[in-house]
């Protein structure tokens, strides 16, 4: 009984389809349709990539390119021994108008040093400053006078 119902359904479907070779010939995309779809896809992709590139370019243009105290601290952090000193300088052509100063002093007798960095810039009638302090442990450093509050 079930077998007869299944055969009946298959015959009805075949009758509704008509000629089955028509569906075989027209069941795939033509080369022209594939080419048009590919062209649309790549046009949209490149438009999105151009938009992202333009946005990143504008974000870079808005960035403030000023030096920070970490640039000077990086030079001091790579040394193995420190001595108490005061230094100052400028950034030459990379950041004209900016000067820096550094004060290194020992805060404990076990080789703990504190380094204070300040970046100065004259902006019109006011002096703009950026300040940063770091602690460095350099036990191989020679003894100096202890200026800090930690003892």
Provide structural commentary.
This protein is of the alpha+beta class and 151 residues long. The protein folds into two domains: 2-62; 69-137, Roll (Nuclear Transport Factor 2, Chain: A), CATH 3.10.450. It has four helices and four strands, in the order H-H-H-H-E-E-E-E. It has helices spanning 2-17, 20-25, 31-62, 69-77, and strands at 85-90, 98-108, 112-123, 126-137. The chain has a four-stranded antiparallel beta sheet, with helices on one face. A hairpin with a 3-residue loop joins strand 2 and strand 3. The model has no long low-confidence stretch (mean pLDDT 82).
Query: What is the strand content?
Result: 25-35%
CATH topology assignment of the largest domain: Nuclear Transport Factor 2, Chain: A
CATH class annotation of the largest domain: Alpha Beta
> How is the main sheet built?
4 strands, antiparallel
Q: Mean pLDDT, rounded to whole units? A: 82
CATH architecture of the largest domain: Roll
Whole-number total of structural domains: 2
Largest sheet: spatial strand order: 1-2-3-4
Instruction: Give me the strand/helix succession.
Output: HHHHEEEE
How far apart are the first and last residues' alpha carbons, in Å?
101 Å
Poorly predicted runs of 5 or more residues: none
SS-derived structural category: alpha+beta
């Amino acid at each position: 009984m079930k077998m007869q119902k299944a055969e009946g359904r298959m015959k009805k479907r075949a009758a509704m389809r008509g000629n089955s070779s028509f569906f075989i010939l027209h069941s795939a995309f033509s080369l022209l349709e594939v080419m048009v779809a590919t062209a649309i896809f790549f046009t949209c992709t490149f438009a999105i990539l151009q938009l992202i590139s333009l946005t990143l370019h504008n974000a870079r243009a808005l960035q403030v390119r000023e030096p920070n105290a970490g640039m000077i601290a990086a030079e001091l952090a790579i040394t193995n021994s420190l001595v108490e000193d005061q230094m100052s300088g400028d950034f030459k052509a990379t950041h004209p108008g900016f000067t820096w100063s550094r004060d290194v002093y020992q805060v404990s007798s076990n080789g703990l040093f504190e380094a204070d960095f300040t970046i100065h810039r004259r902006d019109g009638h006011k002096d703009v400053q950026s300040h940063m302090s770091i602690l460095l442990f350099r036990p191989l450093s020679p003894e100096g006078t202890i200026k800090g509050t930690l003892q």
